[in-house]
Amino acid sequence: MIMHGSGLIVWLGVSDLEKSCDFYADTLGLELRHLDHNEGWAEFAHPHCAARLLLRLTDKDEISPAGGATVVFDVLDIRQAMEQLQGGGVPFLTEVINHNSHLYATFIDPDGNHLQLRQVAE
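The chain above was modelled as a monomer; its predicted structure follows.
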């Protein structure tokens, strides 16, 4: 069992660091904490919890969105969040799905990495 630490870090490979940084900062609202163009990576913080997201510049053929981890963002109103993202051109792979007392909607980042919105079902 993991008995120490104060957060969680998720790492994703991206093919265009600038485009991905814009997506995660401007579109999703994560806080850019570090950007290293020489090493090809960026670190983001979630503005309301201790979660961190790291982006690493990766060869396009090494990125496997369907078989990788899925980053899930909790939201208060899934339909409102979905409409806002779609209004900004973010493609969704699913409509809202009710599963295990939660509502989910899957969307993708510029490299096709799978991301989800999640809301506790009422």
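The chain is about 15% helix and 35% strand.
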